[in-house]
Amino acid sequence: MRRLEAGSLTSALGIGRGDLVALVGGGGKTTLMYRLTQELFASGLRAAAATTTKIAVPEASDPAELLCAPEFRELVERLLVGSGRPRVLGKRVLDNGKVEGVPTEWCDRLLAEGVVEVLVVEADGAARKPLKAPEAWEPVVPEGTTVFVAVVGLSCLGHPLDEETVFRARLASAATGAPIGAPVTTEVVTRLLESPNGLCKGRPKVAQLVAVLNQADTKNDQILGRKIANSILKGSAHYDRVVISTLGAQAPIREVWVP
Predict the structure, then answer these.
(1) Considering the chain, what percentage of its residues have pLDDT values greater than 90?
(2) CATH code, 2-47+118-258
(3) How are the residues of the chain apportioned to helix, strand and coil, as percentages rounded to the nearest 5?
(4) pLDDT tens-digit readout, 99-125
(5) Which of 11, 148, 183, 194: CA 20 to 30 A from 96?
(6) Which sequence spans correspond to the domains of the chain?
(7) What pLDDT, on a 0 to 100 scale, did the predictor assign at position 109?
């Protein structure tokens, strides 16, 4: 594999004008959605974020403001009214305080009609766990997705494969062959990233496949991330690039690898 230099999330993930980015997995997916959208917006692109499932209502400190509408045309009209901040799109705020996501076809139409130039979509949930496996109905990925990003939090390594660490641990066990309660190793993460029932599930065939190995807070984390990167870049899932990151840091990119 070959290392790339990248000074921004946009360049690290290989994202630009015209892309529809679907984020799946755990361990920093929502943070990635906000940081990436803010970066794209600041570069002068008409960039927005959205969810196709449910997310928490953005806080005042988040770099995007919530924009909800029950119908597509109303959403477009409101989105076309300029704002100094990027928007995160939903249909409505539910009684439980979550934002109800937009239909996948809305995401495709927003790009096709030129309403936005880049759209970053959170396509599943992970209950704030660093690792997850998808349920039968997940992820909820727009058909026009061009960049499919699987996110893993490296803080899962060394912890038991159970519901404390892994969202839907039973499904992760089935996808990887690792028994419930066994330590989560780099091999377990690699198998989940490569499994068609794991973090590759739902990827459109034409979409670029990217892994973000987040929470690489120490040198040892980076070494373990590099080991996973080496495995999946030459593995059967054909990842196009791997980004090792610490999304909570001011400079989030640690390493970027390609085959």
Answers:
(1) 93
(2) 3.40.50
(3) 25, 25, 45
(4) 999 999 999 999 999 999 999 999 999
(5) 148
(6) 2-47+118-258
(7) 98
